[in-house]
């Protein structure tokens, strides 16, 4: 790759990472605010109690695991394309890890938050309009850069 193209790839990877981490950390903060803890054993039932938060977290998980059509999908594609040319064995091992095993464990973890039973009593509140705006903007950017990566390259 030429220098200008490498700069474009590096910029794209930075933007993809920004969209992903913004979504992840904001979702954790929203859940912490509602449940009063970050202990996963106390979280659960988001799907029934807070449907907007549930939908936002599903979309956030898709962006985070690099689902096709998201920015992280293209970031992984560019990474693995370059790695296959230099170290094919390592590329296959990392592809299994990043594209198969980690998404399975990540979705399993979130399914406990979405559908699990929580030990606390009462219901949790759904997303406020401000929280929804921030989350859907970050998620939207993750999907926009995935659908149209040419905006950066």
Question: Can you describe what's shown?
Answer:
There is one protein chain. This protein is 75% helix and 0% strand. With 153 residues, it is mostly helical. It has one domain (3-147). Helix 1 (3-35) packs antiparallel against helix 6 and helix 4 (71-86) packs antiparallel against helix 5 (88-115). The chain is globular and about 55 Å long. The protein starts with a helix and ends in a 6-residue tail after the last helix. The mean pLDDT is 85.
List descriptors.
globular, mainly alpha, 6 helices, 75% helix, 153 residues
In short:
The protein has 153 residues and is mainly alpha-helical. The protein is built from 6 helices and no strands.
How helical, in percent, are the residues? Answer: over 70%
- How many H/I helices? 6
Multimeric state: single chain
- What is the straight-line distance between the termini? 13 Å
Tell the overall outline.
globular
Mean pLDDT: 85
**Could you state the order of secondary-structure elements as H and E?**
HHHHHH
Q: Main sheet?
A: none
Radius of gyration, whole Å? 17 Å
The count of β-strands is 0
Topology:
Layout: H1 3-35, H2 46-49, H3 51-65, H4 71-86, H5 88-115, H6 129-147
């Amino acid at each position: 790759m030429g220098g200008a193209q490498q700069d474009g790839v590096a910029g794209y990877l930075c933007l993809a990472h920004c969209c992903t981490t913004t979504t992840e950390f904001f979702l954790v903060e929203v859940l912490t605010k509602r449940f009063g803890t970050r202990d996963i054993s106390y979280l659960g039932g988001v799907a029934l109690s807070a449907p907007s938060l549930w939908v936002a977290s599903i979309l956030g998980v898709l962006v985070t695991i690099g689902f096709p059509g998201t920015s992280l999908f293209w970031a992984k594609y560019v990474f693995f394309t370059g790695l296959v040319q230099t170290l094919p064995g390592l590329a296959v091992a990392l592809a299994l890890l990043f594209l198969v095993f980690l998404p399975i464990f990540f979705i399993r973890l979130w399914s406990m938050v979405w559908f699990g039973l929580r030990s606390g009593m009462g219901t949790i509140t759904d997303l406020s309009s401000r929280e929804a705006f921030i989350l859907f903007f970050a998620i939207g950017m993750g999907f926009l850069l995935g659908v149209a990566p040419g905006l950066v390259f």
